[in-house]
Amino acid sequence: xxxxxxxxxxxxxxxxxxxxxxxxxxxxxxxxxxxxxxxxxxxxxxxxxxxxxxxxxxxxxxxxxxxxxxxxxxxxxxxxxxxxxxxxxxxxxxxxxxxxxxxxxxxxxxxxxxxxxxxxxxxxxxxxxxxxxxxxxxxxxxxxxxxxxxxxxxxxxxxxxxxxxxxxxxxxxxxxxxxxxxxxxxxxxxxxxxxxxxxxxxxxxxxxxxxxxxxxxxxxxxxxxxxxxxxxxxxxxxxxxxxxxxxxxxxxxxxxxxxxxxxxxxxxxxxxxxxxxxxxxxxxxxxxxxxxxxxxxxxxxxxxxxxxxxxxxxxxxxxxxxxxxxxxxxxxxxxxxxxxxxxxxxxxxxxxxxxxxxxxxxxxxxxxxxxxxxxxxxxxxxxxxxxxxxxxxxxxxxxxxxxxxxxxxxxxxxxxxxxxxxxxxxxxxxxxxxxxxxxxxxxxxxxxxxxxxxxxxxxxxxxxxxxxxxxxxxxxxxxxxxxxxxxxxxxxxxxxxxxxxxxxxxxxxxxxxxxxxxxxxxxxxxxxxxxxxxxxxxxxxxxxx
Length: 545
Fold this sequence. Notes:
The chain is α/β, with parallel strands linked by helices.
């Protein structure tokens, strides 16, 4: 695997031996958290494995990398001055533009002086006598902290495919989550790409324009909609800036963190003409949420969902000229139950003469060879291989750190049958440990920035409450945690989400328990629950002096 280069950053002087709060991760969560902790006059440090701020947008530099939430909505709301001054360029910003925004925020609020870059946290253990966390890094640093906050992100622990021979290929290999910062030029090369999730869908059209030949290996097709990306118009920027407060409130109360009208009709109660016209409008809008919320029963009723599936299948067959390739690109699982994608010319790319699709359901992947990729019926020779094989989502970044709570209990072992949290914020047996957008919260089913700000604000309020009341620890009770896990499962079970073998379920990681990890009850309803818990003296948490 080609090693990524790092952006040079000025080294912080020395890691302090003791702080109020230790934060792991300097993405959007860690940055905002540091800003809020300073407002409380608490001492805080942030450890970041990367060479700069940005989190997933620091690492994921693959060709075509772009967010699927509009830039004016995928941004911080905590500073009105920041909202008014920052100039977004595109409707759906690319990775460089989002990273530029993150760096601007770091500069504007002078965040880097408390961030230790290129420093990976390897272990954290709770001292029951001192009621503190001891945090260890790969550099041998040891820091004692009253509170430990894991701001490690939901999609930050990358994974390779589980096939033999990964180290045998003699040419260069790349993972979309660890792309070289200087970029890669595939001009004149035969490229094999494995994986057709979001990173594959976004990178395939760009790589196809460079490569002499691109062979795409697909196990499970994605539902993808055209992004209709464009440069932002000055008038729409001005309108958003003038109405940001009302828009931000609507974000917080919405289902996905993106304000949309609540659909009143069932997909099954309207005529086929009206239904297709509604889907067509959503397809043309360039918005995932518009399609997912076109009718109120798409996520809960199989027959209703099938109408959306048939519509998208027709679109794919209209775009892709080869009937067999078009059929192979049509997913069979319910629409929206795996992360849908936004793309620029994804399906159109399979009409190019230099692009070939290999259906791994028909001819499974056998191994990587010194020359390329072998399936059950052929060997393909390549000059380079790209792994667009995603992440150990939701839990990987947490369980990859050796976190040990009361009695030395390992978080990884405690979650061996699936993650167990209360509100996705804390886990019983791990006092003063907070997770930002952890499993059991809306997280990946939402506009992440909205959910990040809500979690950070909740954590800050909890710490402030403890200090005001002269309390030292906060920890979920087993009873509250059990009830929340049951509630998360109940909500998921009322939807079609569990019907797909998705990374929402952990299905992309062999041996990982198949549990639906995000909370599917909606951003607005979840916020109400969290606010009620806090208003009732942090009901479901044990607080102690």
